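tool_log.txt
---
The assistant was asked to compare two proteins side by side. It first ran the structure predictor on the initial sequence, then on the second. Raw inputs and outputs are pasted verbatim so the downstream comparison step can read them without reformatting.
(1)
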Amino acid sequence: MRTAVATFGFGRPDHFERMLNSLGACPEVHEQTVDVFHFLDGGPGGQQGELRSLIEASGIPFVEIVTRSENYGVGRQLISARRELLDDRGYDRMVLVEDDIELNPTYLTTLLRLSDWAEQYADTGTVQVWNVEAGDESTLRPHLGEVELTNRHFVTYCLSKRVWDAIKPVLYEYERRYLVRRSYAKRPHYRIRGFMRRLLKRPRSTPQTPTLSPPAEAVHNPFPKVRWRSAPTSQDAITSLALYLAGLHRLTTRVPHAHYFGVTGVHCTPELYEFMGFNGQGWWRWSLDDVPTTFTVRYQDESGEWLRSSYR
């Protein structure tokens, strides 16, 4: 598969540098078996010059730096990058990496193996190897090959062209209706929530076989209710909803291969970071010898209770 890696930057050069250095530790990047693109948003506060200098001084291989002439905002930036790489440039899959995630050297190796494994099933959607499983090395090591269904934050994940083609009509409609010609911070939340409610009235698609076909008890709608005042209206929320409607399941390794350090940002505060459990991430510097070669899906915990994951 032709694989593109897309990073995203807007201001915060300290965050971007930490992410970039960790990406550079992945062997796929230096061996150039993946193509790295850096998407730098524009407008006041973008600090495109500083970010470009960091990229060029790092010595980490890349294909292109894509600079926006205006402020796209998170929503348009991420949707546009997927369109440009998967629709226009013809990549088979892409990895999205935001600027507040630190990757383990095993990150891409594990993620792309999981992507290869997931592609045998028509009902798998995005895959990720970032999770909020707590524990030290001895606690986590026995579970390296385990995979779970997730509705967690995206932050960083892999998306195949097959999956993108299934969900992009919803994303493009959301972009056209609510993001074009307005700032992301001023998107019309109430109208977007009405859009989400209408989407949830549509029947879910049934992918062709072969499928993973998880037990019904393990599958959860990321938005069982769309509350007018509090339901999220981000492009991540719409992506998650589009995957659900397409009958596709998001997968993550139980054991994380990256650390989310975004304590402050567009959607996070120190209080929210703690509430979401991010300060309990179990992250270990695994070696390439630890990367699993096969995966097993886990639907229940050790007590036999069904695992549950809500969008948060």
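(2)
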Amino acid sequence: MAEIKKEHQLTVSVSPHVKSEETTSRIMWSVNLSLLPAALIGAYFFGPRAVFALTIAIITAVLCEHLYQRGMKSKITINDGSAFLTGLLVGLNLPPSVPFYIPVIGSFVAIVITKQLFGGLGFNVFNPAAAGRAFLLISFPKLMTIWKEPTAAFVQMDAKTTATPLGILKEEGIAKLMEVFGDKTNLYTELFMGHRAGSIGETSTLALLIGAAFLFYRGYISWHIPVSFMGTAAAMAWVFGGKGALFAGDPIIHLISGGMILGAFFMATDYVTCPSVKKGQLIFGAGCGFLTMLIRLKGGYPEGVMFAILIMNCFTPIIDRGFKTKVFGFKKPDSKETKK
């Protein structure tokens, strides 16, 4: 028998058979890049304190992952960019005035407790950055709710303490919000551009949308979760938001205030903790939007994005199971044939 040349041999391997040039590292660093505009705008508006908080959060996250994996004698994966991304998201979700130990604790909880103790990347149940911020908000409520007014002057160290737009809306109503910002047009403009109090990375809707557009262009996220998330939130704001700038609440204010854009595009779409099936992603996003507005309108906090994402993370396995795709060629046996 003639010997078959190596290039003519058939290679048999397990699925999946679709090959792609995309790697975990490439995807993670691309997401990091997409968050760069938000980080830069946050640094511009809030100055050195914002840069300090972001830097500490990122360094702590990377260091925690390295030390944990080294201690467990497992593969070191800090080069894949996932720990850097978690630290960046933790930092972007912090007020710019927090002391140094807040981003340290937040990144530690996100990396060690939420990610590594569950088995590392791909095995964590909850979004690490959201879990880190939730722990900080529950443990240090005062420090996590001191908001500084943006100065748009990088060299200025001190800034006036003020409330976030959602805080003003919840505590004093739409009339007070209009009084602070002047009129509806100016309110929308300030919220969209980012000149308002809030967490470092959630202030500028424009910067976040630029990053989200990049992720859509690269095909790393789809429309299912963001659209269902924000669509449900907007509908609830319109119906149950009370008397405001529109007939029954102003959905635009809720969409471009707080962590809605950051959560919908960059945290709820996390590959590990969101459903993998498109129909399931619609349910997941709608659940996030519903819970966010339930907390904003009826809860004790003016913001609910983080808690909504964490709660819906619990339902991800059930949603995936309920909407799992059918095996190609599978035919359900007839009940009569089964009895025979």
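---
observation on (2): The beta strands are 147-148, 161-162. Residues 244-248 have pLDDT under 50 and may be disordered.
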